Amino acid sequence: MRATSSFLCTLSFLSALLLGASPVVAQSSTLEAVKKRGQLVCGVNTGLAGFGAPDDKGNWTGLDIDFCRAVAAAIFGDGTRVRFVPLNAKERFTALQTGEVDILSRNTTWTMSRDTSLGLNFVGILYFDGQAFMVRKSLGLKSADELKGASICVQSGTTNELNLADFFATRGLTYRPVVYERLVEVLGAYANGRCDAFTTDSSQLIAERTRLTDPEEHVMLPDLVSKEPLGPAVRQGDAQWSNIVRWTLFAIINAEELGVTQSNVEAQRSSSNPEIRRLLGTEGEYGKGLGLADDWAVSILSAVGNYGESFERNLGQGSPLKIARGRNALWKDGGLMYAPPVR
Amino acid sequence: MRISTAKSERSATPFETWGGKLRATLFPTLLQSVVSLVLMALIAHVAYAFIDWAFIRAVFTGSDGSACRVEGAGACWPFITHKMNLFLYGRYPEAELWRVHLTYGLALAGVVPLFVPGVPRKPAILAYVLLVFPLLAFILLSGGVLGLPLVRTDLWGGLLLTLVIATVGIAASFPLGILLALARRSELPFVRWTSTAYIELVRGVPLVTVLFMASVMLPLFLPPDVTIDKLLRALVGVALFSAAYLAEVVRGGLQAIPRGQYEAADALGLGYWRKMAFVILPQAIRLVIPGIVNSFIALFKDTSLVLIIGLFDLIGIVEQSVQADAKWSSPQTAATGYFFAAAVFWIFCFAMSRASAALETKLQVGARS
Q1: CATH class for domain B158-369?
Q2: Which residue in B152, B220, B325 is closest to A18 by CB distance?
Q3: Residue A255 C-alpha from the chain's centroid
Q4: What is d(CA A234, CA A105) in angstroms, rounded to the nearest whole number?
Q5: Do residues A303 and A78 touch, judged by C-beta distance below 8 A?
Q6: B185: helix, coil or strand?
Q7: Domain limits of chain B?
Q8: Closest-CA residue to B359 (of B266, B293, B310, B261)
Q9: How far, in Å, CA of B235 to CA of B238, rounded?
Q10: 3-state DSSP call for residue A189?
Q11: Domains and CATH numbers, chain A
Q12: pTM of the prediction?
C-alpha cells in the first residue's frame, strides 16, 4: 500500500530471500508458549482508523484489535491478556516469522504469494476491502465507467496506482493520473479540486473523507477496482494454533448469525437452539479439539461481542467512520461473511 | 550588508530617544530603509497569518473533530489538549506517571547547577549526572524492582521516548566518539584502520538503514526464542551512528591543537592517556563545542526516525493520532498536531543551543589568543 523508497524495497527483498532460505522454524506448540507467557502477543497496524489505533487514553481500539482480544479471551478467558506490537508494512512478516508476535492482525491483504511463500498462513477474512473511487456529489456520477477522461488522484508506488491503470485499460477508457508521494498530499490535491476523483482502498477512502471540510458533499462510486481481503495470519507449521485463530473468527461470525451478543451470551447458554448450545459449549466438547475450555466461545463473546457488534463499534454506526456493512454483512443479508458450523 | 562607514557614523550618533535609536539602526540610508520596510512588511504579514490561524480563527473547545470541521476554522486546539498525555508520555500507565516526573526532576537537579556559575562541587555533580542519574532513571522508568511495577518499553512514547533516546544517544556517543577520534589518530596502524573503517562505514549509510537493519534483519539472525527489546535496538543504533559523526568533530579539534602542546606534554613525562586527558582533550573539546552541540541537536531531531521501526516518539505519536484517530479527523487536525510537535522540538533544540552559547562564553572559546 504505502509508497516505499527503493532501498527499503531492496532490503525487504533481501529479508524475503533470507526468509525463503531459512527453514521454517519448527515450533513447539504456540499455544503452550502463549500460556506459559501468560499473554498473547499480537502484531497490529501502527495506526489505521477503525482497524487499529490508540484512543485519547492510549488504549488500542479497532476491528483488528478486537480480534486479538477475542483470541486472548478464547485462551485465557480474559480479553485483556494481550500485548500489541505496532508493526509497519515492511517489518510485519518478519515479526511473525521470527516469533516476535503470535498473530498478525494488521489489515493485511490475503494474496497467494504471501500465503504460499512467506512461511505464514492466512486463517480467514475479517474484512472484505477493495479499491474504490470518491467523487464530488455535484458531478452526479453513477458509476466508474463515467470517469472517461477524468483526472484521478492516486498515491504513487502503491498497488492502487497499478490497479487504476488496469481498470481503465480493460475498459478501453482514457484518464489522467495525478500522483503524489504521500496520502495526505493526495487528499489535499483532491480537496483543492486538482482532480475529479480520488482512489484508494475503500476503508481508507472513508477515513480520508472525514478529513474534508464538507464530507457530505463527497460520495463513493459503487465499483470496486480490486479485491483486498484483509485477514489475520499465523506462522506456518502449527496446525493447532492456526485452528484456534481460525475458529475464533468463525465463532464471532456464527454468533452474529445466531443472535448471540455480548450482553445476552450468558442467558443464551441455556438456549434451546442446539446450534447455540454447541457454540457456547453447553452441548458437546468442541473446545477440546482446539486444546481450549469448552466455553471458549462464551469468553470471546463476553470480551468483544460478535462480529457485527465489533464492526459497528469500530467501523460502523458506532464510530465516526459510519461504514455500511456492504460486502461485510452476513451471507444471509447479502454479504460475504460466512462461517462453517460448529458440530 | 552593513558597510563600515555606516557603522562609524552610527556609533557617533547619540541615542537620546527610542525614535533616534530606531532611526539610526533601521533607517540610516535610503537603501537600508527600503530593505527594513520590506522585511518588516513581510514579517508582519507572516505573523498576522499565524496569529489569525492559531488564535483568531482557531477552535479552542470541543470533545471531538466535529467541533473543528467548520468552514474557515483555524487550529484545532482541543485535539492537542485531549491527547496531551498521549503526546507527552505515550501509553505509559497514568498511575505511574509520577515516576516520569521524578526522573525529569532528578535530571534537572543535576543539569541546572552545572550551568549556574558559582555552584560548588561541580565535579561531584557531574559524576552524579553521568553515573548515578542514568541508573536511577532506568530503575524509575522501567521498574520491576524495589516494588515498582514493571512498565514495558513498548508503553513508552511521545516526548518521553524522544528524551530517552536523545539522552542515551548523547551520553553514550560522546565517550565513544572521543575514543574513536583518538583511535583514528593513533600510531598503531591496526587501531587506526579499524576506527577509520568504522567511521567511514557508518557515515556512508543513512540512519534509517541502520534502524531498519536493527528491526528487520537482526531478528533473522537470532535464535527463534530470543527477541531483543525494540527500544534497546534503536538506542544502540542511534548511539553507534552518532558516535561516528562525533568522532570526526572531535578529530577536528585534536588536529587544531598545535604540535607544541603534544611535545610539551611529552616533555613533562606524561603517558599517552594522561597527556590526552589533561592536556590535549580539554583544549580540543573546548574548540569544537559548537560542532558537538550541532551533532547533538541533529541527533535529537533524528530520534523521530525511530517511527520506521514502530516506536512512537513525539512526531510518531502525533502522526499516529493525526492519521488514525477518526474521532479527531478534521481539515486542520494535521496542521495543528505537527505545529505542536515542531514547537516542542524547537523549545528543546533552542535550549540546547543557548546552553552551548553559555558554555562558550564561560570558556571564552571565541577569545582564544
Answers
A1: mainly alpha
A2: B220
A3: 19
A4: 9
A5: yes
A6: coil
A7: 92-151, 158-369
A8: B293
A9: 5
A10: helix
A11: 6-128+230-333 (3.40.190.10), 131-226 (3.40.190.10)
A12: 0.81
Cβ separation B323–A100 shorter than 8 A: no
Q: Are B215 and B230 in contact (CB under 8 A)?
A: yes
Tell me the pLDDT tens digit for each residue of B59-114.
898 888 888 888 888 888 998 988 898 899 988 888 888 989 998 998 888 888 87
Of A14, A91, A319, the CB nearest to B309: A91
- Strands A60-61, A53-54: pairing is antiparallel
The owner of cell 533616534 is: B20
Put simply, whether A319 touches B (Cβ < 8 Å) is yes
The SS3 call for residue B358 is helix
Interval A185-233: pLDDT, tens: 888 899 888 999 999 988 888 888 888 888 888 988 888 888 889 999 9
| Chain B contact for A49 (CB, 8 A cutoff) | yes
CA distance A34 to A53: 24
Nearest to B310 among A46, A56, A320 (CB): A46
In A84-103, the residues whose Cβ lies within 8 Å of chain B are 84-88, 90-91, 94-95, 98-100
Question: If DSSP codes are grouped into helix, strand and coil, which group holds residue A5?
Answer: coil
Are the C-beta atoms of A210 and A204 separated by less than 8 Å? Answer: no
**CA–CA separation, A68 and A56 (whole Å):** 20
- Cα(first)–Cα(last) distance of chain B, in Å? 28
- How far apart are the C-alpha atoms of B312 and A86, rounded to whole Å? 9
Contact B237, B172 (CB under 8 A): no
The DSSP secondary structure of B135-169, one letter per residue, reads HHHHHHHH-SSTTPPP--GGGB-HHHHHHHHHHHH
C-alpha distance across the termini of chain A, in Å: 39
Q: Which three cell numbers stand for residue B162?
A: 524522544
Whole-angstrom Cα distance, residue B169 to residue B237? 9
Residue length of chain A: 343
Q: Which of chain B's residues have a Cβ under 8 Å away from the Cβ of A88?
A: 308-310
